[in-house]
Amino acid sequence: MRWVTVDGRSSLGNPAAQSGAGPLRRAPLALLPLLLLIGCTSTSTTSTPDDKPTPAPNPASPGGRWQPRPGVAWQWQLNGKLDTSVDVPVYDIDGFDQPESTVAALHAAHRRVICYISTGAYEDWRPDAAKFPKSVIGKGNGWDGESWLDIRQLDVLEPLMAARFDMCEAKGFDAVEPDNMDGYLNDTGFPLSSADQLAYNRLIAELAHDRGMSVGLKNDMDQIPQLIDDFDFAVNEQCAQYKECDTLTPFIDAGKAVFHVEYELSASEFCAESRKLKLSSLEKKYELGAWRKSC
To answer: Which of 17, 180, 236, 250 lies deepest, with the highest CB count within 10 Å?
Structure first.
């Protein structure tokens, strides 16, 4: 998710009202104006011919982990009844909400599956919420039921995150999308430094790798040069709106996918640049339901 930072690149809004079975976690209200006007031809709400799985779209890394390649198509759905009919090679879904059987069904359809887990924020509706001591829970991050975590307290957070990653592994996920990985740029209630963030993000990557799963760097674009070797892909929100997609090219140059979404720009405004940069780009609504437009 995107946040206000000291250089003004990102925006933060208040969460929307709850929707469906749980809190709606991706619906800020205060947003910057549209900034880009770039041509695009694809406006599919499900999939396009380019989205269709190829015989080997997701090779393994030398260490045996799945390594998504630049340009691979994907679907990102964190809310609502999961639509498994989108014909793409990669799905990114909520690790707590989705059962092992869903992951197995997606695998049977020759799809790789990413486990969405918040690693930098406390979520009061999760089944393990009571295990987080008050000492690590900071200021609200602007989303319903969420608060920043004190990522300096590695002795407390490491076993909690390890248990979450154990869950992802047990359900058969191929990879992890750890969210809220840039607390040091925000008003968390803790004096977090860039060094604190680097140490924590590397811990998160290690936890995933130790379980044979690949892991994505979520946003945290300022630290890409230091973290490119630790992460297997990137997940980015709104780089086109903030004119910073070029910052993600180290991942592309390393043969690693960049899974990218825009909320405030239409697909016709960013797809041309996305294709040029080999990003795996979608237009999505903030609630991250099934609806999508692909490049």
So the answer is: 236
Q: Nearest-CA neighbor of 111 among 93, 97, 94?
A: 93
pLDDT band at 60 (very low <50, low <70, confident <90, very high): low
**Amino acid identity, position 239:** C
Which residue shows structure tokens 């140490």? 199
To the nearest 10 degrees (0 to 180), the angle between helices 154-170 and 194-210 is 30
Rounded to an integer, the average pLDDT of 123-136 is 98
27 located within any domain: no
What total of structural domains would you count in the chain?
1
Q: How far apart are CA 148 and CA 261, in angstroms?
A: 23
Which range of residues forms the domain containing residue 204?
49-294
Q: What is the pTM of this model?
A: 0.83
